Amino acid sequence: MPRRRVALVLILALGILCLRVRSDSAGFARPTRMAALPRLTLWAWERPSDLSDVDPGSTAVAYLALTVRVHQSAVAFPRLQPLVIPVDPRLTLIPVVRIETASGSVLDDATAEAAATEIAGAMRPGAAALQVDFDARLSERGWYRKVLTELRHELPAKVPLSITALASWCSNDRWMQGLPVDEAVPMYFRMEPDRRITPTTLDEYKIREPLCADSVGVSTTEPWPDSYVGKRVYVFSDRGWRVDSIGAVERRAE
């Protein structure tokens, strides 16, 4: 029988539900919370994404659910593009929230709390984790720490909290020390805008931040570092999952 498909146009009005249960401050047990997630995760960003051929037993889907734009306040914008996934209870789903700021954005305690509340609203019943994507500038790091700290309090204690990270954050500086997150995924694609700190090869990045030690972010068309072996692998599709082969990625990550 052919696999059933369902097109999920993930918009806020159709069921991105908030689980705003404040967590206990008791330990952030990263190994325990992350251990249940599949080793391979496919990223689905803001474009039509057909992931109907994904293996639900071994591969997770991390999909852009919301974009939170910060100016005088924090406002959430839902995903507008369709996402096609298998109808299978084994499939692991991870909502991703992108933060965007601009010149003149007010980055204070109030907007940090508002942003955290909007991000928590991306959680849906059955979601396995939550991921935040933000290329925080040096001047934005203190504010981002406040957002993540408040967000951790708003999420259920059992929900893993993941963030994406520039590779240099994991090697050339240690500003992420003490962040209340379960992992930071170093992105080894479309590398650093500051080429003065970009090594010649990917494997010259020496991961010094423990939060970055267990996962890696790669793309379908750029080289993968040798260090991906044995880690959780997040894969971005450069050409879209209608073009890039899901099966080829799954075989490579085995």
Outline the structure in words:
- With 254 residues, this protein is of the alpha/beta class.
- The protein has one domain: Alpha-Beta Barrel (TIM Barrel), CATH 3.20.20.
- It contains 5 helices and 12 strands.
- Strands 2, 4, 5, 7, 8, 9, 10, 11 and 12 form a 9-stranded mixed β-sheet that branches.
Briefly say what this structure is.
This protein is an alpha/beta fold.
Identify the notable features of this structure and list them briefly.
single chain, 18% helix, nine-stranded mixed β-sheet, disordered N terminus, TIM Barrel, alpha/beta, three-stranded mixed β-sheet, 12 strands, 254 residues
Write the layout of secondary structure elements.
Elements: E1 5-9, H1 30-35, E2 40-44, E3 49-50, E4 59-70, E5 74-78, E6 82-86, E7 93-101, H2 109-120, E8 130-133, H3 141-154, E9 161-166, H4 167-171, E10 183-187, E11 215-219, E12 232-236, H5 246-253
Parallel strand pairs: 2-4, 2-12, 3-6, 4-7, 7-8, 8-9, 9-10, 11-12
Antiparallel strand pairs: 1-6, 4-5
Helix pairs in contact: 2-3
Record field, number of beta strands? 12
What profile does the largest beta sheet have?
Answer: 9 strands, mixed
Order of helices and strands: EHEEEEEEHEHEHEEEH
Strand content: 25-35%
Count of helical segments?
Answer: 5
Low-confidence stretches: 1-30, 192-200
Number of domains: 1
CATH C-level label? Alpha Beta
Rg calculated over all Cα atoms: 17 Å
Overall 3D form: globular
Compute the separation of the termini in Å.
26 Å
Q: Give me the CATH fold name.
A: TIM Barrel
Task: Give average pLDDT, whole number.
Answer: 84
Helix-and-strand structural type: alpha/beta
